[in-house]
């Protein structure tokens, strides 16, 4: 089979590489000439464990290619995936579908009457987008022989390849039987592994993605509020999370208290769901509250750091350990660091930060930060250290060494990496979330 991934960003590149591993011939098309050239040179534009090897393997095998020209690739493909960005639209919070609809117009020019092609929205899009994509293409090219499908991705950054190759489920929605057959053929390797394949309508598929992310964001926000309550009443949120997570109806995943959710999906998808629901007159009050609580929580985290430093960080060094929104990625989208670091700087702190992979990306978004070469250089002279991202190398700090080089032995653990009883054996003043 032959497919195109229109967009060589995170979703398009990972999905394209994984489909090529299934034996599908894939061309990733992107208008960014610099990105395509880097991919031809073997340079991966994103950090994702294992992706560089997977890309290299399938490029060598001739199954994975890159191009800036849709015209050279589009004719005679079985499926054309739209995997472009859908950021939050400025001003109103809706998903910005500019790139999706432009992709539909571009695709329309190359569809022919004698060859059937499935146009698949892989991007996360609001309910009704698939219908609009079909309308755009039919108006632009009435003779086009095509069907439209929705196939949301469920890839976690840092473990995306495993998520694609061994997913909990595959969801696709279409009203075309011919399109459904193409989608089943593409995912046949997973069907043979007895992966659940959920076939729905376009609208149900589109909503499934938003509903799933909103539910997970709600679980995170729920346990964060329980953590605040634990701090007031002397309970331990990790014990509470374990106690409720062992209930099969609840489950243990996404019950880890912290500074609030971030990343490329949850913030924009929960907001887009709220806006769509309000637009059709069916508000989702729970999700509205989740969005509000999470925004306020991230803004509050700097206050915890300042309080741990004695209430004043003016002119003092603060060590920030980790800036990406989660480990094993360089993604800075809606990272808590984008709230905490500016707030610390506004309070007069001199921020010394280290992250194993995200400092280049973070440097584009944060100013006046002293980027350090390793953990201990970041700790040098700091009156307080704060763990913002739970990278593995922050899980085994040498506290004796840290004490010797810091201005004061103070650690704010916003990811609950360490156990309070273990930290009590050190000379560090230690605070965490919900314990």
Q: What is the oligomeric state here? A: single chain
Strand content range: 5-15%
* Number of separate helices: 18
CATH topology of the largest domain: Rossmann fold
Q: How many strand segments?
A: 14
Largest beta-sheet characterization: 8 strands, mixed
Count of the domains: 3
Please give the CATH architecture of the largest domain: 3-Layer(aba) Sandwich
Taking the alpha carbons of the first and last residues, their distance comes to 54 Å
Mean pLDDT metric: 96
Topology, element by element:
Blueprint lengths: L1 E5 L3 H12 L3 E5 L3 H8 L10 H10 L3 E4 L2 H4 L5 E4 L15 H11 L8 E5 L7 H12 L5 E5 L9 H6 L4 E5 L2 H10 L1 H5 L4 E4 L1 H32 L3 H9 L20 H14 L5 H24 L8 E5 L15 H10 L3 E5 L4 H5 L6 E2 L3 H5 L2 E6 L11 H7 L4 E4 L6 H4 L5 E3 L4
Parallel strand pairs: 1-2, 1-4, 2-3, 4-5, 5-6, 7-8, 9-10, 9-12, 10-11, 12-13, 13-14
Antiparallel strand pairs: 6-7
Would you write up a description of this structure?
- The chain is of the alpha/beta class.
- It has 3 domains: 198 residues, 3-Layer(aba) Sandwich (Rossmann fold), CATH 3.40.50; 83 residues, N-(1-d-carboxylethyl)-l-norvaline Dehydrogenase, domain 2; 131 residues, NAD(P)-binding Rossmann-like Domain (Rossmann fold, 3-Layer(aba) Sandwich), CATH 3.40.50.720.
- It contains 18 helices and 14 strands.
- An 8-stranded mixed beta sheet has the order 3-2-1-4-5-6-7-8, sandwiched between helices. A 6-stranded parallel beta sheet has the order 11-10-9-12-13-14.
- Helix 6 links the parallel strand 5 and strand 6.
- Helix 10 packs across helix 12 and helix 10 crosses helix 13.
- The longest helix has 32 residues.
- It is globular, with a radius of gyration of 24 Å.
């Amino acid at each position: 089979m032959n497919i195109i991934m229109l967009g060589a960003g995170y979703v398009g590149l990972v999905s394209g590489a994984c489909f090529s591993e299934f034996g599908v011939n894939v061309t990733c098309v992107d208008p960014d000439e610099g990105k395509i050239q880097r991919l031809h040179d073997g340079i991966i534009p994103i950090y994702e464990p294992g992706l560089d090897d997977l890309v290299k393997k399938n490029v060598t095998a001739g199954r994975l290619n890159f191009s800036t020209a849709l015209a050279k690739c589009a004719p005679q493909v079985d499926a054309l995936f739209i995997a472009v960005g859908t950021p939050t639209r400025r001003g109103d919070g809706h998903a910005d579908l500019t790139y999706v609809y432009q992709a539909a117009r571009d695709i329309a020019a190359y569809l022919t009457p004698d060859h059937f092609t499935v146009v698949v929205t892989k991007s996360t899009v609001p309910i009704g987008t698939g219908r609009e994509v079909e309308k755009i293409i039919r108006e632009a090219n009435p003779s086009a022989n095509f069907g439209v499908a929705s196939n949301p991705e469920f890839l976690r950054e840092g473990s995306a390849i495993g998520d694609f190759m061994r997913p909990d489920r595959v969801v696709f929605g279409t009203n075309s039987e011919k399109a459904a057959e193409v989608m089943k053929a593409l995912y046949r390797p997973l069907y043979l592994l007895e992966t659940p394949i959920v076939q729905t309508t376009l609208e149900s598929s589109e909503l499934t993605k938003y509903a799933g992310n909103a539910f997970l964001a709600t679980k995170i926000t729920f346990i964060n509020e329980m953590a605040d309550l634990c701090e007031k009443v002397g309970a331990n949120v990790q014990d509470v999370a374990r106690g409720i997570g062992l209930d099969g109806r609840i489950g243990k995943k996404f019950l880890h208290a912290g500074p609030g959710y971030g990343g490329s999906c949850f913030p924009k998808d929960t907001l887009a769901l709220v806006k769509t629901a309000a637009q059709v007159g069916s508000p989702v009050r729970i999700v509205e509250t989740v969005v509000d609580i999470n925004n306020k929580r991230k803004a509050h985290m700097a206050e915890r750091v300042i309080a741990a430093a004695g209430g004043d960080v003016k002119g003092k060094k603060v060590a920030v350990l980790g800036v990406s929104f989660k480990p094993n990625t360089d993604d800075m989208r809606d990272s808590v660091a984008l709230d905490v670091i500016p707030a610390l700087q506004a309070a007069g702190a001199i921020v010394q930060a280290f992250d194993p992979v995200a400092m280049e990306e973070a440097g584009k978004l944060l100013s006046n930060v002293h980027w350090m070469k390793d953990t201990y250089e970041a700790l040098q002279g700091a009156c307080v250290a704060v763990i913002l991202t739970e990278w593995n190398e922050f899980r085994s700090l040498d506290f004796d060494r840290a004490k010797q080089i810091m201005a004061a032995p103070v650690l704010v653990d916003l990811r609950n990496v360490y156990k309070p009883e273990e930290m009590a054996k050190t000379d560090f003043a230690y605070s965490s979330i919900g314990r």
